[in-house]
Input
Amino acid sequence: MKLHHIIESQQFTLPTLIELFQRADQMEQVVARGGTLDYQKKIMASLFYQPSTRTRFSFESAMLRLGGKVISTERAHEFSSVMMGETLEDTIRVVGNYCDVIVLRHDTVGGAQRAAVASAVPVINAGDGKGGEHPTQALLDLYTIYKELGVIDGVKVAMVGNLLDGRTVRSLAYLLGKFERVKIYFVAPPALQMKQDILDHLASGNVWYSLESDLSKVLAEVDVVYMTRIEPEKMPAQEKLPSPYYLDEAGIQRLRSNALILHPLPRLNEIAVGIDSDPRAAYFRQTKNGVLIRMALLASVLD
Ligand code: CP
Output
C-alpha cells in the first residue's frame, strides 16, 4: 500500500483500510521489539498551528519508533515566519525542502488541502479548522473498534457532544459509512447537531442514522459510545446537570457488557473519571492505537 497526501477520510477505500489495519497490527510487533531503523534516513516535520498533545506526540513517537527523525514546531503562529506574514503555501514549500513528510495541524478548514497543493512532499492532515477533518484520529478510532470488537460491519455507534464543530466525528462518520449495516446515532443539542453535508453523504450511501438529543435513550442500543466535548459556553442555557450529553456511572449501567466507550480526548467533564477503570472504557487504549496507526500511515507514505 502506497499513500501520498492524507487529507480526508473520504480518500480511503475499504481494501486500503483493511490493509492499513493489518499494517498497524504489524507495527505493534515492531514496537514490542523496540522499534526499527528502517526509516532512519527519513525526516518528518510536524507543523502545528493549534495546540495538541496526542496527535503531535503520537506522530513524533511513531516516527522515532520507525527509526526516523523529527523536526517540529508546536506553535507555528508564534515560532515560524508566519509571524512576519508568510503564507501557509510558502511555509510548506520551504519546510518541504527540509523533510520527507509534513504533518500539519492548521486552524482553517481546508488548510491541509491548500498545503498539499503547494507541497513537494506528502502532507498529512493532523486536524484542520473547526468543523474540518481529522482523518488520522478517525482511522485510529476505527482501528480501535476493529481491534476491540473484531468487526465493523453492523456496528451501532452513538456520537455524542458538539457535533457541529467537531472534526473527529465528521471524519469518523465518513469512514463508518463505508461499512455494511452500520447505524449511527448523532446525540447533541439541536444547535450543535451534525452538519447537513455529512447527513446528505450518509443518506446518499443508504447509511442509517438518527438525530437524538438524549444519550440515555440510546445507550442500551449501541456497541460504541463515542464521546466528545461540549465546551461549557456551548451548552444550551436550559440544560440542567446531569447533562443528557455526559456519561456517568449510572449511565454505563445501561450499556451492553461488551460495549466500548471511546473519546478522542482531551475530555472536559463529559465522562466521569469513575468510569475510567471500567473495562469498556477504551479511551486510553485508543491513544495507544494512535501510535500504531500513525506508524502504519508514515510507513505507507515514506515507502
Ligand atoms: N485527539 C486529539 O486530536 O488530541 P490532541 O488535540 O491532543 O492532538
